[in-house]
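Budget justification aside, the reviewers requested a transparent look at the raw inputs and outputs of the sequence design task funded under Objective 1. We therefore reproduce one unedited record. The lines immediately below are the structure tokens for a 391-residue chain.
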């Protein structure tokens, strides 16, 4: 039987208390007003949450990935927007920098991440390169002590408040995965512009923006990994940095599902129809049983992925399993929780409609469920498949 040690269970209890006390009350506010929960970021920095997995020598706690996973789960249980901020802090570029960055880069950027002063975003998707990210055309051209960026990115989560963006770009006249590398661009760099936030369905407190690069000259010291025009090595190594994001995505799914399940279970004990609590009806019992089972299965997959690390990152197959299952599980659970609440769940008096909206985006970011199935199939077969249309 898989069981967390007492220290991690104690941490979970503390994280749940903090989330319920500090984040739950204004969860609807951030969503309705579409405001970034900056006060929550500051509180998480004070509590050490933003640096929980960052090594101690750079100001963090050096905790295992699974501890950060538990934290995300407990925060997402009450406030998805706050969890999004924590996710970006512990599983975004800071994790990639911790594993792939130079010593100088770690000392320069990570302490600020821990304090909540450095807010990192990721620039990967482009208008013509979403799931087919290897179709990206944003270019990176070495020029002495600089790298010159030209191109456009979209759907950068939290980019409107970010101080730094980890940008993926193409070195040389290459195609496919060859030549793709990454560099960090700081806000205010000439030639770098951030677009206006666009409206979206869920996670409305943490907006998404477009990024524009017009002969943007970035110091070579900001280079995480130059693209290798002659091989896929740089791309594969950078792609491994998606592991923490995928496990964190799954952990947030778990938290939202857990919150929805708890609301539905409590409501089924209180709500009466035909003279008795609706929990007495087998149809409701089966819904609750299915929800509990799916949440339990997701938790085991997620914790396993967060525990089994390869070269500092979660095992790619374990991360893909966990994200795929959790992405679809959270949609089923939140939808059933709303159904148990009846029309009350459809109103904004209850958080279920927000949870349903928030849960829908999980299966799009960090690899769609379709792409994850392709990834899993390739690893199961032990070979790559050409996914291009007409192939």
């Amino acid at each position: 039987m898989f069981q967390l040690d007492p220290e991690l269970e104690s941490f979970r209890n503390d994280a749940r208390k903090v989330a319920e006390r500090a984040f739950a009350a204004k969860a609807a506010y951030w969503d309705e007003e579409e405001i970034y929960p900056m006060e929550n970021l500051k509180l998480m920095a004070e509590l050490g949450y933003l640096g929980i997995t960052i090594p101690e020598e750079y100001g963090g706690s050096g905790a295992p990935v699974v501890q950060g996973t538990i934290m995300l789960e407990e925060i997402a249980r009450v406030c998805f927007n706050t969890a999004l901020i924590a996710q970006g802090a512990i599983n975004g570029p800071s994790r990639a920098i911790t594993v792939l960055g130079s010593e100088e880069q770690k000392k320069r950027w990570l302490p600020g991440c821990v304090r909540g002063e450095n807010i990192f975003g990721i620039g990967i998707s482009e208008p013509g390169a979403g799931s087919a990210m290897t179709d990206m055309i944003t270019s990176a051209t070495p020029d002495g002590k600089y790298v010159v960026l030209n191109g456009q990115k979209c759907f950068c989560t939290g980019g409107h408040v970010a101080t730094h963006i980890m940008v993926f770009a193409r070195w040389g006249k290459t195609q496919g995965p060859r030549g793709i590398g990454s560099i960090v661009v700081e806000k205010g760099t000439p030639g770098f512009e951030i677009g206006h936030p666009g409206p979206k369905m869920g996670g409305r407190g943490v907006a998404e923006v477009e990024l524009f690069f017009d002969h943007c000259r970035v110091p070579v010291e900001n280079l995480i990994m130059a693209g290798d025009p002659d091989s896929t090595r740089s791309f594969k190594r950078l792609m491994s940095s998606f592991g923490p994001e995928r496990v964190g995505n799954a952990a947030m799914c778990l938290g939202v599902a857990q919150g929805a399940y708890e609301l539905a279970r409590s409501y089924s004990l209180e709500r009466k129809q035909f003279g008795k609590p609706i929990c007495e009806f087998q149809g409701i019992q089966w819904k609750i049983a299915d929800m509990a089972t799916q949440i339990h299965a997701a938790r085991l997959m997620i914790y396993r992925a967060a525990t089994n690390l390869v070269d500092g990152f979660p095992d790619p197959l374990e991360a893909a399993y966990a994200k795929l299952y959790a992405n679809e599980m959270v949609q089923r659970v939140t939808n059933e929780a709303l159904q148990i609440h009846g029309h009350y769940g459809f109103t904004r008096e209850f958080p279920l409609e927000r949870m349903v909206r928030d849960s829908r985006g999980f299966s799009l970011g960090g690899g769609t469920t379709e792409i994850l199935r392709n990834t899993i199939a390739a690893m199961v077969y032990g070979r790559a498949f050409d996914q291009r249309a007409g192939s």
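The first strand starts at residue 120 and ends at 123. The first helix runs from residue 6 to 23. Computational costs for records of this kind are itemized in the attached budget.
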